[in-house]
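Example: Ubiquinol-cytochrome c reductase iron-sulfur subunit.
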Amino acid sequence: MAVTNQEETGLAGEPTRRDMIYVATGAVVAGGVAMLAWPLIDQMNPSADTRALASTEFDVSKVPEGSQTKIMWRGKPVFVRHRTPAEIAQGTKDDTADLKDPQTNFQRTQQSNAQPGKPEYLIMEANCTHLGCIPVGISEPGYLGEYGGWFCPCHGSHYDTAGRIRKGPAPKNLHIPPYIYTGETVVKIG
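Written out as structure tokens, the predicted fold is:
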């Protein structure tokens, strides 16, 4: 049976068998590309051991007033600072200072209205926001900060008692990780 010219082109712009073959072939190719791409995309997800470390719990009562400790969360160090009333007062006073990354002392220690924080405990990632060095704190040898908080020895960034950038090349404050208090003194980070 001979195919007429009218069957090949379709009547009045209607799809032909050839159009349907093109659509079907395109769908199969798109499905094949997706199946080949999935393992490549999936391998970029965090490994199981990293996902297992997605959160950590710490008893903040172990940190004496006026000192800090470093704990690990997701393979990164985190400062847990038990601030003195003078440090809290200084952080609140500095709320009105000219800040590169404006945040109040209250915002740095309170996670939400439903879950109030404790202003005496400052929990933040221990990575300078400039190039990721670990800043030294008040109670550590080599402290040279001008604002009573932390100093990054790599490039000279100075942070105040609330972990806010005050001087130097760092563009942002020290990052506050997500956390909640699961007990009176136990905090869950992550």
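The domain at 50-189 is CATH 2.102.10.10 (Rieske Iron-sulfur Protein).
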